[in-house]
Amino acid sequence: xxxxxxxxxxxxxxxxxxxxxxxxxxxxxxxxxxxxxxxxxxxxxxxxxxxxxxxxxxxxxxxxxxxxxxxxxxxxxxxxxxxxxxxxxxxxxxxxxxxxxxxxxxxxxxxxxxxxxxxxxxxxxxxxxxxxxxxxxxxxxxxxxxxxxxxxxxxxxxxxxxxxxxxxxxxxxxxxxxxxxxxxxxxxxxxxxxxxxxxxxxxxxxxxxxxxxxxxxxxxxxxxxxxxxxxxxxxxxxxxxxxxxxxxxxxxxxxxxxxxxxxxxxxxxxxxxxxxxxxxxxxxxxxxxxxxxxxxxxxxxxxxxxxxxxxxxxxxxxxxxxxxxxxxxxxxxxxxxxxxxxxxxxxxxxxxxxxxxxxxxxxxxxxxxxxxxxxxxxxxxxxxxxxxxxxxxxxxxxxxxxxxxxxxxxxxxxxxxxxxxxxxxxxxxxxxxxxxxxxxxxxxxxxxxxxxxxxxxxxxxxxxxxxxxxxxxxxxxxxxxxxxxxxxxxxxxxxxxxxxxxxxxxxxxxxxxxxxxxxxxxxxxxxxxxxxxxxxxxxxxxxxxxxxxxxxxxxxxxxxxxxxxxxxxxxxxxxxxxxxxxxxxxxxxxxxxxxxxxxxxxxxxxxxxxxxxxxxxxxxxxxxxxxxxxxxxxxxxxxxxxxxxxxxxxxxxxxxxxxxxxxxxxxxxxxxxxxxxxxxxxxxxxxxxxxxxxxxxxxxxxxxxxxxxxxxxxxxxxxxxxxxxxxxxxxxxxxxxxxxxxxxxxxxxxxxxxxxxxxxxxxxxxx
Length: 767
Hints:
Layout: H1 3-10, H2 13-20, H3 29-38, H4 45-61, H5 75-86, H6 91-98, H7 102-106, H8 110-117, H9 119-127, H10 139-156, H11 159-173, H12 180-200, H13 204-218, H14 220-236, H15 238-254, E1 260-265, H16 268-278, E2 289-295, H17 298-311, E3 313-314, E4 320-321, E5 334-339, E6 345-352, H18 353-361, H19 365-368, H20 380-406, H21 410-420, E7 425-429, E8 435-439, H22 444-451, H23 453-457, E9 459-464, E10 467-469, E11 481-485, H24 502-533, H25 547-560, H26 565-573, H27 579-592, H28 599-607, E12 618-621, E13 629-631, E14 643-648, E15 652-657, H29 661-669, E16 674-679, E17 687-696, H30 701-710, E18 715-720, E19 730-739, H31 742-754, E20 758-764
Helix pairs in contact: 1-2, 2-3, 3-5, 4-6, 5-6, 5-11, 6-9, 6-11, 8-9, 9-10, 10-20, 10-21, 11-13, 12-13, 13-14, 14-16, 15-17, 18-20, 20-24, 21-24, 24-26, 24-27, 24-28, 25-27
């Protein structure tokens, strides 16, 4: 039975009649599907029947729906399935392509798909379904969560993103009828997300087309102007291109190298991007045209390179060996730029047939060469060509799972993924000569997290090419990087300013969030215990095996709108809930269960509390509170200052000096959020404070000021001066210095007053 007759047998009777008449118009779904079924010849007859059943299901689901262009909606799923068929995707992916909008637009449920077509196909369709039906506060939040869902589904099954890319490509090809603002939004989203994903997975054909289509919709005038300029240049250079091609073919034939030579032209978007990067005009872009040479074996690649370098002169610095060191997405090829006799620079790309398949189809090459159209085993070198594509795809997909594990906010997840979507890579080596690809601008911290998250968390120092460097040093291709670790080391928040990989950023943020939660929980527990002591009660047991206490905590958490005790204590520590109010509610719950105030505890609570200021007791500040405690930047308190604490909403504890004007205004507005804080007897670190130093603007004045400060064992953190004071007779220096306490600060200021150029010294309470 032929394919068309098979399709006719399974189609509904009206559609069967249309097919029998041989109508070939694109507007009729059966004819379009007949064209699709002919492209599915690589599938077995049984699988083709399953595809037809999926088509019938999708056609019925979309009955009465039309695209903006006026075509029946079913033409879109058929076109998407056709693109997937070009990659030789399996039957489940083709079925998912036909039904990819059924759940989102037609109210079809996942259980229904599982019952009709199996769990695997239903999972693919579900992964392609956006979350628009759920409630989100903003469009951006909805979009981010939908991307998160799709990318996680892709990390489990890469066919999800292949179908999604086919869906996006067809939508981009057919959005002329949409409103301009919607076209702009979709084109921007495609350029930011989908085109880089295609590039990351090595799908270069789709990558280039998505870029060009996005550019056309985002900047139609610029696109048309460049397209016309390129058309004119094509006509002017046709003779040059033909001459170069004949010269190359003649030279390769003389060296007995078999090669398929094809011309290659830069896309309009790549020309535009190059003009933007180099701030140049169209006429300054020389390499508009190039050649691709596909040869039988790896040895032929290097032999061809030698032939070309004998034929034309190479341009120094324009040779790249991506065979020895593949790109991050598995791309392999030799690139060289030569100058022909007419003085024109021409780029050549040399690769094997297997490398060419991976270069154009990327991870999709895995399906293209799994079986041949005739059902026979693929050629060995083609099968081997997929190893790199699968490996790099798997590595990136695994990184998505790592980022998901560390990141629970969808917008943050999308931010981390975007970072990894632009792998303009540098290639560095471990001390054992293993190659790692990192994004341009990556640092030793990125390198450490690429090795292992434990190595990144405990990183303290690094060497590049045997020399010690700072952890913010940018790595370059060819660097040999060695990382030193210490068991007690922990991630530094400052690393977030210079790491480049999404993996490193998500790991650091995850650690800091966990640390903040632990600190907030401890602070909240302490504050609640002190507030409860004022009620004559002790805090219930935190032992999970104490059932009575566990029930009490659960009731309190439910009253506060929290899921558990830990979340409630974190809210208290972060200032989102006031300990006094929570303590009064807890006292009432305890009274209902027969727990009465204890006279001794009540006396202790009153004795340790200054009732005129705050009933919560004293929180001692020793500098170890970390993320849950901030020293207010307006007054920069240091040990020895009289201080008070403000529980900001979600900020944790903010410590002000008692005379701080900002603090006083906050107190008038929000009195119940202020608590009594004091400095601990043992302070664990130094503290920043600001001082103003007026100096005579003479040669060496700054050096004398720095020398006076260093003589007191204080450190200068930052120094600044207004530009207009650089030529003044007396200049004001504003310094941030690290001191232990007020006594140490007094020593610093005394030493400065003794310095020859210093006119005046004062502490700055407001910056």
